[in-house]
Design a protein that fits this description.
globular; about 400 residues; alpha/beta; seven-stranded mixed sheet
C-alpha cells in the first residue's frame, strides 16, 4: 500500500514539475521553481481559497452545463452542484487533492447523514471521523485514494488521522497560516482575537490597532521579501515580482489582509474564520462553503455522481474532450505558473472545446489579466473580456488573497 501511494505521488510530482518548472540550470530562479514544485507535491489546500459564490455569480452555471474546473480541495467543485449542472469534471496535478476530492464524494454518498458529514469536513477534528472513515467510506473509495489516506505521512501516522486533529491545520497553506500566527504572537498579537469583533466597524478598528503595525516590523518585512515565503499562498517564483508590482511585498500583503478583515462581515465569511481560527466557526448558523451547508446537503448528495475527480494536466484533459463540449471553465490561479507556450496550448484547447456561450473564469495573484500580449491574438479574438464584471467579482471574492478575478465570454 505504501509503495502504490508513493507511486501516485511520483506521478503527481512529475505533472507538477512539468507545469511549474520552466527555467533550466542551477541558477537562483531555477532552484526556486524546483523548490516550489517539490512543496506542491504534498497536500496544499485542505480548503480551496477561491470564493464559490463569486464563481457562480460570474459563470452563471445552469442546467445542462458541463463544468470543467481545477479541483484543489474540491470544495468549489462540489459547491457548483448546487447550481444543478449536468456534469462537473475536476482535474488536478496533485495526488493529495485528487484523493481529497474522492474522499468527499464517497463521504457524501455513504456517511449516514448531514451531521456526520459536517463533523467530518466542518469540524474535521474528532476521533469519530476516523472510525466513520473505516466503517462507511473506505470500502467505497477508489484504490489509489484509499491508499493515500491509509498510508503514513511524515509524522508516521495514517493520513486519515488528520481529520481527528483538524485537517485545516495541515497542508502547505495550513502550515503557512500557522507560521503567520506564530510570527504575529512573537510580536505580541494573537490573530484569533480579531474574531471577537461583533460588526464591521469593530473589525476595522482591530485591523488599524493590531494588524497594521505588524507590517512595519523588520522581521515581517524581511520574511515577506523572500519569494519562498509565499509558496504557502500558492505564489510561484515566476509570479512573485509581478505580484509585488514594484512595491514591497509587505505592502501588498497588508492590502490583501485589510480587504479580508474590513470588507466583509465575519458572520458571512468563512475564509476569515479559516485565516484567524484555522477552522470553521462551530455555531450551527456558521458561515460555511455551499457544499457544507445543511440547506444544500440533499441536493449535493443526490447530484454528487455528476462529479468526477481525476489526476491530469488541464490542457491534456481538454485535449481528450469533444469539440464544443464544455460550457464553463474554472482555472483558479494555475495560469500564474505558465509559460507563454503553455498558455497558448491551454487556450487552444479551451477555444476548441468551448460551446457557443462558454465562459472562462480565473484568478491572478497580480491585479491585471495576464492574457493580453501572451496568448495569440487569433485565440483571444474568440473571447470577450468582461472588464467591469471582472472588477465586480474581484471585489466580491471574500477570500481576498488574489489580485484579480477575470471573466471571459465566448464571442458569438
Amino acid at each position: 500500500m505504501k509503495r502504490n501511494a508513493a507511486g501516485g505521488e511520483a506521478v503527481g510530482g512529475k505533472l507538477i514539475e512539468g507545469a511549474a518548472v520552466s527555467t533550466e540550470g542551477l541558477n537562483k530562479e531555477a532552484l526556486l521553481e524546483r523548490a516550489f514544485a517539490f512543496a506542491f507535491r504534498w497536500l496544499v489546500y485542505a480548503q480551496i481559497w477561491e470564493d464559490p459564490i463569486a464563481d457562480m455569480a460570474g459563470l452563471e452555471i445552469g442546467e445542462g452545463h458541463h463544468v470543467v474546473t481545477i479541483a484543489s480541495g474540491s470544495c468549489n467543485a462540489l459547491s457548483y452542484l448546487t447550481a444543478n449542472p449536468a456534469r462537473v469534471s475536476a482535474v488536478d496535478l496533485n495526488t493529495a487533492h485528487v484523493a481529497l476530492g474522492n474522499l468527499k464524494r464517497a463521504a457524501l454518498l455513504h456517511l449516514p447523514g448531514y451531521e456526520e458529514f459536517r463533523r467530518f469536513f466542518g469540524d474535521a477534528a474528532h476521533q469519530d471521523n476516523v472510525d466513520a472513515y473505516f466503517r462507511h467510506i473506505a470500502p467505497y473509495l477508489d484504490e489509489r485514494s484509499r491508499q493515500y489516506w491509509e498510508s503514513r505521512g511524515i509524522s508516521g501516522r495514517k493520513r486519515i488521522r488528520m481529520f481527528a486533529n483538524n485537517v485545516y491545520r495541515y497542508g502547505l497553506l495550513g502550515k503557512f497560516i500557522g507560521l503567520a500566527h506564530l510570527v504575529a504572537r512573537l510580536h505580541g498579537e494573537n490573530p484569533r482575537n480579531v474574531l471577537k469583533a461583533t460588526n464591521m466597524a469593530e473589525q476595522r478598528a482591530y485591523f488599524d490597532a493590531h494588524f497594521l503595525p505588524l507590517f512595519d516590523k523588520p522581521l515581517i518585512r524581511w520574511l515577506t521579501s523572500q519569494p519562498a515565503s509565499l509558496f504557502g499562498l500558492g505564489i510561484p517564483p515566476a509570479q512573485y515580482e509581478k505580484l509585488a508590482g514594484g512595491k514591497p511585498m509587505a505592502t501588498v500583503l497588508r492590502q490583501r489582509l485589510e480587504k479580508l478583515v474590513c470588507d466583509f462581515d465575519f458572520r458571512d465569511n468563512y475564509f476569515a474564520w479559516q485565516a484567524f481560527s484555522r477552522g470553521y466557526e462551530k455555531k450551527p448558523e456558521a458561515s460555511l462553503p455551499p457544499y457544507l451547508q445543511q440547506a444544500h446537503y440533499e441536493a449535493v448528495r443526490v447530484r454528487v455522481d455528476r462529479l468526477s475527480v481525476q489526476q491530469a494536466n488541464m490542457t491534456d484533459f481538454l485535449a481528450g474532450q469533444d469539440a464544443q463540449s464544455v460550457d464553463r471553465f474554472i482555472l483558479l490561479d494555475a495560469q500564474d505558473w505558465m509559460t507563454d507556450e503553455q498558455l497558448n496550448a491551454l487556450w487552444s484547447q479551451i477555444s476548441r472545446t468551448a460551446t457557443k456561450d462558454a465562459r472562462v473564469l480565473f484568478r491572478t495573484a497580480a491585479e491585471p489579466s495576464l492574457l493580453p500580449g501572451r496568448v495569440q491574438d487569433s485565440l483571444l479574438a474568440m473571447w470577450e473580456y468582461q472588464e467591469a464584471r471582472s472588477l465586480e467579482l474581484t471585489q466580491q471574492d471574500r477570500s481576498s488573497i488574489y489580485g484579480g478575478t477575470h471573466l471571459y465570454v465566448r464571442r458569438a
